[in-house]
Specification:
By secondary structure, the chain is an alpha/beta fold. It has helices spanning about 45-55, 75-85, 100-110, 130-140, 150-170, 185-195, 245-260, 265-280, 305-310, 325-330, 350-360, 385-390, 400-405, 420-425, 445-450; strands spanning about 15-20, 30-35, 65-70, 90-95, 110-115, 140-145, 175-180, 200-205, 240-245, 290-295, 360-365, 375-380, 410-415, 430-435, 440-445. The chain is globular, with a radius of gyration of 25 Å.
Length: about 450
């Protein structure tokens, strides 16, 4: 009888499947290492098992221990599965960027989940890294696998994923493409493949603001890939090339592959596939590109595969016949200036001067430099609010913006209908326009009135 002794025996040996529809105009064959077939639905089952078994050997885990780990969801699921089989409790820390489905999934496996803000630095006490460290100190018999520094993470892919790909392609692979989060997958697989054939190219598909792509690590919305620091599990000596991919490109590719290939893949899979197709366009039919897709799209049904969410963040244009917000912006005279915003530590007096200089009456308040993430917007400030506050106390002008700011401006996607903008502006003086997931500009009532006053054929 073919019966696995436990779910842990089902980890690995995932299939390869050729992409046919999205590669119609590309000579080079592109095949997917489809990690959805792991019992937890992602490639993270592999390092989860390896890290727990190593911890047991080293005496870091004992009956009743609690495994604590910051995760974007998939590593947590893998650890929860292993923990269930080995008799441990689990507690995971995620950011508020992680979709509700992933949080619910972790809880379904019996884990405790702590949600932290994404728009903070790694060293901030509220970050998910810092929170995980605090929980480890507070929890008796706690163990943190630390996938970002645990050598068993890349080793698991060196031991399993790499050999599987080499065997399944009969050694014909010429290029391997994967995302780089912790760096464990691409480093482990890359090391193994290069030992078999040094000419094999190892390419990372990476969010365009990630440190691997030369960015600061912010902002981007795609989950589980890219980083804002350099994990020790990432081996740059193995990587031949890094291809920056935007959120828009990642999400559009995930949706396209899911719709026309029948492979429901997640946002970070879209990042990897986009990069793989860019590579394949440069190659011939004698090459072979293998791209690893780490998880399923089922964890992104409320985000990447939700038209309302995608439109609200400025990734899609609403399916309507009337005008949309982008038409209003296009009709504004001259080029739209970069987003003007105040920082929470700015003086109110300085912000008033900024508003007068640019002839605007309200600004969003946000921390960090451009480009901004929507989550980094903290509030708003407007002339009316300042006037009311300063009327009886002129010293208000010398205070910081965060002391007098108002709630955040409502947001609207650049592809949403003008009709929606009209309704929202009935309740707020201005709107923050999102384009590709990021704040682009402020749309004021005056902008909309100017647009609506145009000739009907133009508007």
């Amino acid at each position: 009888m073919e019966i696995a002794d436990s779910v842990l025996e089902l980890i690995g040996n995932t299939p390869l499947v050729r992409l046919r529809q999205v590669t119609k105009d590309i000579e080079c064959p592109v095949v997917v290492k489809y990690e959805v077939y792991n019992p937890g639905g992602s490639s993270k089952d592999r390092p989860a098992l390896a890290m727990v078994l190593a911890a047991e050997r080293d005496g870091h885990l004992k009956p009743g221990s609690t495994i604590i780990e910051p995760t974007s969801g998939n590593t947590g699921v893998g650890l929860a599965i292993v923990a269930a089989q080995r008799g441990y409790k689990t507690k995971f820390v995620v950011t508020d960027k992680v979709g509700k489905e992933k949080v619910d999934l972790l809880r379904a496996y019996g884990a405790e989940v702590v949600v932290c803000p994404v728009a903070v630095a790694p060293e901030d006490p509220a970050s998910y890294y810092s929170t995980a460290e605090r929980l480890v100190k507070e929890t008796p018999d706690a163990f943190r696998p630390n996938q970002y520094a645990n050598p068993n993470n890349p080793q698991s892919h060196y031991d399993t994923t790499g050999p599987e790909i080499w065997r399944q392609t009969d050694g014909q692979i010429t290029h391997f493409v994967a995302g780089a989060g912790t760096g464990g997958t691409i480093s482990g697989v890359g090391k193994f493949l290069k030992e078999q054939n040094p000419d094999i190219q190892i390419i990372a598909g990476d969010p365009d603001q990630s440190v691997y792509s030369g960015g600061s690590g912010r902002p981007y919305l795609v989950e589980g890939v890219g980083e804002d620091f350099w994990p020790t599990t990432y081996d740059p000596s193995v990587i031949d090339r890094v291809i920056p991919v935007s959120d828009s490109q990642s999400f559009a590719m995930a949706r396209e592959v899911s719709e026309i290939e029948g492979l429901l893949i997640g946002g970070s899979c879209g990042t990897a596939v986009y990069a793989a197709l860019e590579v394949a366009k440069e190659l011939t039919k004698d090459d072979l590109v293998v791209v690893l897709t780490p998880d399923s799209g089922r964890g992104y049904l409320s985000t990447v595969f939700n038209d309302e969410w995608m439109t609200g963040f400025g990734f899609l244009r609403a399916q309507v016949s009337e005008c949309v917000v982008s038409d209003v912006l296009a009709a504004k005279e001259g080029d739209i200036p970069p987003l003007l915003y105040a920082r929470p530590t700015d003086s109110v007096r300085g912000v008033v001067e900024l508003m007068h200089e640019h002839d605007v009456s309200q600004l969003p308040v946000a921390k960090n430099d451009m480009p901004l993430a929507t989550a980094e917007v903290m509030g708003s400030i407007d002339e009316l609010r300042i006037m009311e506050a300063a009327f009886g106390e002129t010293s208000v002008l010398d205070r910081s913006v965060e002391e007098v700011m108002s709630p955040k401006l409502p947001t609207i996607g650049i592809g949403e209908p003008v009709e929606l903008a009209v309704r929202l502006l009935d309740l707020a003086p201005a709107l923050l326009v999102l384009d590709g997931g990021r704040p682009r500009t402020v749309l004021a009532r005056a902008d909309l009135l100017s647009f609506l006053s145009l000739d009907p054929a133009t508007a």
